[in-house]
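Sanity check. The docking grid for nicotinamide-adenine-dinucleotide depends on where the pocket ends up, so I'm generating a full predicted complex first rather than guessing from homology. Inputs follow.
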Amino acid sequence: MLIDGQVALVTGGGSGLGAATARNLAARGARVAILDFAIDKSQAVAAEIGGIALQADVSDEAAVGAAFDAAAAHFGSAPRIVVSCAGIGLAARIVGRENKLSFDVFEKTLRVNLFGTYNVMSHAAARMGDLDPLYGGERGVIVNTASVAFEDGQLGQAAYAASKGAIASMCLPAAREFARTGIRVMAIAPGLFYTPMMEGLPPEVAEKIAANIPFPPRLGDPQEYAMLAEQIITNPFLNGTTIRLDGAVRLPPK
Ligand SMILES: NC(=O)c1ccc[n+]([C@@H]2O[C@H](COP(=O)([O-])OP(=O)(O)OC[C@H]3O[C@@H](n4cnc5c(N)ncnc54)[C@H](O)[C@@H]3O)[C@@H](O)[C@H]2O)c1
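Predicted complex below; grid placement will be based on this.
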């Protein structure tokens, strides 16, 4: 799909991978709505790129629907491009010290990362299906964000890996379901990227992480995520799968 002139919605667009994606889509001519919990950050990015900021918790089904309606009302069309980057990275052992169980972490992580992505995808597809088809019958593209932890989750990442594994697993059935309306669904599984999620790490920890990345031996640049999202949107034959974007990293057990 040609990006120029399309309406795009990016969740988590106030920060990190989502902010880079929102900026890149705007640079390619898209009109961009940023859906984020953190309204101050998303307003700053929106002001920079001439887009709009919508405050919503992705795990709140009604709030996500209202944000899609607000984007459509503002731009005069429902988004044809939707990129889900909102997510959290909580860590906890399944059975912690003194047998403390971490159901709360599991539930919260699944609620935001998985249910949130599902909410956004379902609201996106419902509206895209009503749009006119473009060249080749295409109506829309949905890009979800997994993580390399969907395959090599580390100790303490049971909840995070489960949420990202489910995002990867639902990509194919979603693409199959939406095929008849010309909507593609893809997922990106990033390795280790330099975003606010990582900026808080002490330098020695960041160096240790980078040392595990074969090539290039550094953290990923959010712009590299944005480049892959752009390629997925513009390449009509990419559908129903998850792409690792990781410099060949394989996460060690811990
Ligand atoms: N940074 C990495 O190395 C890395 C690696 C693999 C996967 N990922 C995934 O990429 C995505 C983006 O990560 P990032 O590093 O850019 O993170 P980030 O923390 O910089 O940005 C995440 C954004 O999501 C928003 N958000 C969080 N919970 C939300 C909710 N419930 N509703 C609405 N917005 C919410 C935050 O306000 C923030 O603006 C996440 O899904 C993360 O799991 C990141």
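Relevant for the grid: The beta strands are 7-11, 31-36, 52-55, 81-84, 140-145, 183-190, 242-245.
Also worth noting: Residues 11-12, 14-18, 36-38, 41, 57-59, 85-89, 112, 116, 145, 147, 190, 192-193, 195-198 surround nicotinamide-adenine-dinucleotide (CB under 6 Å).
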